[in-house]
């Protein structure tokens, strides 16, 4: 009982530390003040996803649809029975035209804008992380996390064919892993009673991993180390990802995407400037394995990813298979 209480207390502490770390948006302001390029990219994300994308949704719901309902009325208010109304066929035609015009608005504006936003925002997120990391270099003390994550080994920068193949294998595996993990999150959302809750927590971990992955890429943390670090400190990253998901989880898919696209760069920057090691190992916790233990979050996604890699016969990936988690 004491062990369970101790683990619950430790999990709560780490969760709160991650949640608080994600909400430290004042660090974003500080980074933007240091870098003009970062301010421009962040502003472009707000302009595209906030003003244009979400603004279009507000315009549709507050102006376009009410105008169509006024021009193409839905019912005949002068009589009690629509069946006896001589204009019932006209009203049905109005209803069809109104729905068709709204759908055309989605097909020719929202969906292309949605795809365009995803592509452009993805490129901008990488620029934002790059400029944020460059701004962080002005504070050498904030590079301690990269040192701590790589403290047991030296960085190997050997440029050979084997290393290139392993790097390609890692990239392919990482893409497959996160893709299958996202599909797992989506599928769990349909499970009765507990599906939404499970989807919420898994989506929180997914967003947290995405946020920190930019930083780990720039600090050249190997894939096996980042996965091990992430799964060993799952409570912290659950807390970090919760604000990301809470901001958009209860909206419709399009609105939720727009909100998330606005806020995601901010969380990327808080992850870039995060001192996760200090938060995780604070209050006397010095050993990596002294806490809650490793939670195999990516077990199912890893199983499917390895199956696909074996199917594609990517033999170069076998060289790093023993390094990663099971």
Explain the overall architecture.
The chain is mainly α. The chain has one domain (2-321). 73% of the residues lie in helices and 0% in strands. The chain is built from 13 helices and no strands. The longest helix has 49 residues, at 88-136. The protein starts with a helix and ends in a 5-residue tail after the last helix.
String of helices and strands: HHHHHHHHHHHHH
> Mind describing the biggest β-sheet?
none
Low-pLDDT sequence parts:
78-82, 145-159, 286-290
Number-wise, the strands total: 0
Structural class determined from secondary elements: mainly alpha
- Provide a count of the helices: 13
Report mean pLDDT, rounded to a whole number.
79
Distance between the termini: 29 Å
The Cα radius of gyration reads 24 Å
Question: What would you say about this model in short?
Answer:
The chain has helices at 2-22, 26-34, 36-71, 88-136, 144-149, 161-188, 195-218, 223-232, 234-246, 253-272, 276-280, 299-312, 318-321. It is mostly helical and 326 residues long.
